[in-house]
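S., here's the first fold you wanted:
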Amino acid sequence: MINSPSPVMETYNRLPISFTHGEGVWLWNRDGERFLDAVSGIAVCGLGHAHPAVTRAICDQASRLLHTSNLYRIDAQQTLAEELCRLSGMENVFFANSGAEANEAAIKIARRYGNLLGIKSPAIVVMENSFHGRTLATLAATGSRKAQAGFEPLVQGFVRSPYGDVEALLKAAESRSDIVAVLVEPIQGEAGVIIPKPGYLSALREICDRFGWLLMLDEVQTGIGRTGHMFAFEAEAVTPDVVTLAKALGNGVPIGACLARGQAAHALGLGSHGSTFGGNPLACTAAATVLSTIVDQNLLEHVVSVGTHLATELKKVCADFAGFHELRSRGLMLGLEFAHDCSELPRIALKHGLLINVTSTRVIRLLPPLILTEEEADLLVQKLHKSIRILHDTRVKSSEASQKP
């Protein structure tokens, strides 16, 4: 365990542990203790840790060329862009280094699109409780006052609407003429794995077509196989005008991508946007290997199968606890909501060799690697059940003690 002061800025509430190496769904600390990783670096390591194919690709590319800048053609970038467009139905890609940067590009596309339509101050509809990043623009788009506090004045040009509420969006459309786009997560991850009702994305597509808006989907967390589809929008056979990716795209190598089609694909011209490191040979080679591995190994079918198994087993054990509210899941993106605060659970689970995440204080968010086996899923359930039991029993004892005269 680590307790010494750090020269790193204290912007994270880190658990007191660090890891030396990993393999598959497992991580090891310096004492040789093994931990089942049900966080995946926050939905990043979809292929697990030290995946052989990704490791080989990174080592091979690093031995040849890391960086030239976007002043020149990058073959690996062209190859990756072609594959992403083939898989998504989009036309072109802007490469960045993170999800926030990919969303910045989407926001700039929407504003340029609006300006080309003659709208001087174009507005983008974003959703309550959304999360799009921590740069100034993506922070303003994010629906969390806690995250925004202290960073005012916020970037203007965002109209907030309740997530999943089509009627509210229609009212906004009828009352404003400056809206040019909708930016939305197919599933809200940071908000607690909030899954909208079936047909929501289809309804958004219809509204955007009716009013000439761009439909922009933030698939930073849901993309690259997490939900059992390569992209979550495929579940409703909806094609957005813009889609943003990052996290699992590089399996740990930083890369972000903003994909576009139609008018959105041509909104940004020469000199209108850029990135020094975006789309470098190393990141693009890693990402291309991730995509080919998912496709070649039929991992999407596996995600649906093991995700269903995991959700079924979790429901069984969670039924033991009176405070359990519901389980929401799509593929290997799961949220278990309780009636009480679960913030201490990651520390408890850590003692039992399990890495989990709690978001919105009451939701256990599970984002295990896509390669998780059923046996490992069962072990995850056992460890989580034991951890929740300890939290539950501690809470009961504390309540009983407070009631004594």
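And the second, which I think is the more interesting of the pair:
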Amino acid sequence: MTSGARRVYLTTTGDNAMVETSRDDYLRVRESAEKDRCGRHVLVDAPEDADLVLFVGSRESDFWDVRRHPLVRARREDCFLYHSEDAIVPFLPGVYPSLLASDSRLGRAVAGGYSAVLHIDIPHLEFDPDAKYLYSFRGSLTSHPVRGRLRTLQDLPRGYVEDSSDARAATSAHAPGTHRPLAVELMRSSKFCLCPRGRGPSSWRLFETMRAGRVPVIISDDWTPPPITPSWDSVSIRVRERDVVEIPKRLEEREPEAERLALAARLAWEEWFSMETFFHRIVDWCEAMRISRRVPERCARFVTALSLAHPRKFRHFVVPRLRRSLRRAAACF
């Protein structure tokens, strides 16, 4: 094995029953490992042969099944998790696409891409200097307040914003359905694609846009950038949620850079988030966290648990588990 190479045991507790796509995430990461073009890290069949144990997905939304797994208990310092749910608390160190900046304490977690985008049929779209739209968005305007602010950009001369809240099917390119070719065609006709946050601080749309070779306009104050090089400023534009109304003016000012940014976005997707690099980057990031670890994991995990005192997280993670415990206790009587 080459310097820096790691033997990885890849596993999951997910089955898509309680946490949608958790098993699918595992299958996609495994496929990425099989198609890895970097060739540094290798999969092993047994955990005792591994330097690093990577869980992908979980059966439960609070990762309780992973947290209590025998491997985690026995090898806590070597275990990491990739999980793509919108609402997360990094109870285990790992890679979380929808990571809040406030949850990246002690260097235990980093943001990443969504494995689901690996299986979307999105071509690399040739940049059109005469594209019909300066910017575009088609999707729900109700999943987060910042999306509602996009209504102020509707009916402007060089933009396209459509609210699909009443549509049955999801409308980004990742969801299957007849709308998918329409989503790709809208990206083809645009120079910039608006990528507002939804239920989570990140968005599948961001990585769809990069894969298509268009410039993502990231609208999410809580978004945590995945650690890539060059910087995200060289492949995207970021706008504060309160500044949505200024987007047309800002994009007109940046329009001369659009083609360069679009090409850089596509290259960054190939280098960091494509099928041939996805597994490699996750392992690299996990190994970097292990090397730079300042506090033993057996202690650091309790610091993360303190964030459950936040009312929103308490309702999402603690209350459901208390209810399940009470139901089980009641069933014993």
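Why I say that: The chain has a mean pLDDT of 89. The chain has two domains: 7-112+278-331, 120-272.

Talk tomorrow,
H.
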